[in-house]
Amino acid sequence: MNFPVTVTVTLREGIADPEGATIERALPALGFSGVTHVRAGKSFHMMIDAVDEAAALERATALAERLLSNPVIENATARVGDSSWGVA
Amino acid sequence: MTKIGVVVFPGSNCEYDALLAMTTLGAEADFIWHSDDKIVGYDGIILPGGFAHGDYLRPGALARFSPVMDAIADFAKSGGPVLGICNGFQVLTEAGLLPGALQKNRGLTFLSHPTTLIVASTKSVLTRAATKGQELVIPINHFSGAYTCDDPTYDALVANDQIVLRYKENPNGSRDDIAGVSNVEGNVVGVMPHPERAMSTLLGSADGRILLEGFLHAPVSAS
After folding, report:
1. Which of B68, B178, B215, B221 has the fewest CB atoms within 10 Å, measured from its CB?
2. Which domains, ranges and CATH numbers included, belong to chain A?
3. For B61-88, what is each residue's pLDDT tens digit?
4. In chain A, which residues have pLDDT < 70?
5. Mean pLDDT score of chain A
6. Closest to B149 (Cβ–Cβ): which among A67, A68, A72?
7. Given this model, what pLDDT does residue A87 score?
């Protein structure tokens, strides 16, 4: 069975985030006030062929830790379920 | 004669500079394609700058899985001198051959200009011919050069004298002004600045020579 999986990669706590900081600094100039703690990350979508949801999640977590994230600076979380990415 | 292998990934772009620097200093040098799974007959390995595998995902993230990387890990483990320059440094951290990681520069700016470096340790194969505290003018050329690591890793770097070079003025937000680090043994070194582009005073600086000469004369373990 094919399961839709979303992997989200975020910077670990305490790791500087120059993208998030730059976005946060730009927001007031555009009229968006009161926005703080902006953190930038990455999101990946894929279909995983597995016997059940738990097996799909296990494979997604493994590939997220091995390739999609650098554990030195990033955390990765995998989630099985409908995605808003609109897979064809 | 000393023979140096310069690893070429799809997207490397400083391999000819590295090769020329080696031959200029009297070494023999040739290219090693990233899909080779053996490295035989080399006294040292250089991973040059560029954008290996397009830097997709993260710089070095895909290059780390190139077949040649297992051979390089074995070469490093046996004491062979390995130098990663710029993108090569990023590849070595992703491969786990050096601690820490390189993040996007503070301010999200691509930086390309000469920097003044201070030799922080002479324990490594790159800095063994230099003097501690010596200032060297060497150019940087990177977008992801901010050295990052957690506190235990940083403490270990300091305790084991693994911080090889520091920027005199921090250009990119690197932790503790770090421009280059080595492994504990000192035979694997990664630096963001480009010593191979500082080979001639006519072209701005010849300060890269003392580093690369040291690298060329690094002893190779008998194993």
Report:
1. B221
2. 2-80 (3.30.1280.10)
3. 999 999 999 999 999 999 999 999 999 9
4. 83-88
5. 91
6. A72
7. 54
Closest A-chain CA to B106: A18
**What are the structural domains of chain B?**
3-216 (3.40.50.880)
Nearest CB to A70 within list B58, B107, B146: B58
Residue B139, chain A, CB below 8 Å: the answer is no
Structure tokens, A53: 């949801």
Q: Tell me, what's the ipTM?
A: 0.81
Instruction: State pTM to two decimals.
Output: 0.92
- Alpha carbon of B173: minimum distance to chain A alpha carbons (Å): 9
The verdict on a CB contact (< 8 Å) between A22 and B107 is yes
Q: What is the DSSP string of A29-82?
A: GGT--S------EEEEEEEEE-SSHHHHHHHHHHHIIIII--TTTEEEEEEES-
List active site positions of B. Answer: 86, 194, 196
CA distances from residue B97 to B63, B138, B200 in whole angstroms, order as listed: 13, 24, 31
CB-CB under 8 Å, A14 with B94: no
Neighbouring CB atoms inside 10 A of A87's CB total 10
